[in-house]
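Budget justification aside, the reviewers requested a transparent look at the raw inputs and outputs of the sequence design task funded under Objective 1. We therefore reproduce one unedited record. The lines immediately below are the structure tokens for a 172-residue chain.
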């Protein structure tokens, strides 16, 4: 069941020692959610387990960020990202996420493990502006070319700065 949630301006700020942890299968279906995830998402464990991780996707997040995330994970690499999530009640919370592939004993990817912590306020400010520009590019390009336009914009910005995506994210 997908919830129709109206975003609000009610922000929850993670505490310094909070760690939001979740695990998914290879399709992004939640298989584990820790109590801090449950607390911030405002969903019960039963509402989270078995659902797509994008149940907490905030509309302020550009599609290009998730394309980058999934492409990086497909290369069996970890990724760091700043993400604005939406709670069941429409509130939001920012996280600094680290997502890594999980492997079985034969070295096959069997899912993903994500640990999120409190981001620095100045990092949120930088990402908010970047994400808004990416969303504008996505809307201007239209649904068919949205992701490509969003990724072109961020690639151009990073090239101008002379940094990789990872260097940028870890440097802010």
């Amino acid at each position: 069941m997908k919830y129709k949630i109206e975003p609000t301006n009610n922000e929850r700020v993670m505490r310094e020692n909070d760690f939001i942890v979740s695990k998914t299968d290879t399709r992004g279906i939640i298989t584990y959610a820790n109590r801090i995830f449950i607390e911030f998402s405002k969903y019960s464990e039963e509402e989270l387990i078995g659902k797509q991780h994008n149940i907490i996707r905030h509309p302020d997040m550009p599609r290009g960020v998730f394309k980058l995330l999934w492409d990086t994970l497909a290369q069996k690499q970890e990724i760091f990202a700043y993400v604005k999530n939406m709670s069941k009640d429409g509130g939001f919370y920012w996280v600094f996420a680290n997502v890594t592939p999980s492997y079985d004993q034969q070295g096959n990817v069997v899912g993903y493990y994500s640990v999120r912590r409190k981001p620095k306020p100045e990092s949120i400010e930088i990402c908010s502006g970047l994400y808004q520009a990416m969303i504008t590019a996505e809307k201007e390009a239209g649904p068919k070319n949205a992701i490509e336009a969003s990724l072109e914009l961020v690639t151009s910005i990073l090239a101008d700065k002379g940094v990789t995506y990872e260097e940028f994210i870890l440097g802010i």
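The chain has a mean pLDDT of 96. The chain is about 40% helix and 20% strand. Computational costs for records of this kind are itemized in the attached budget.
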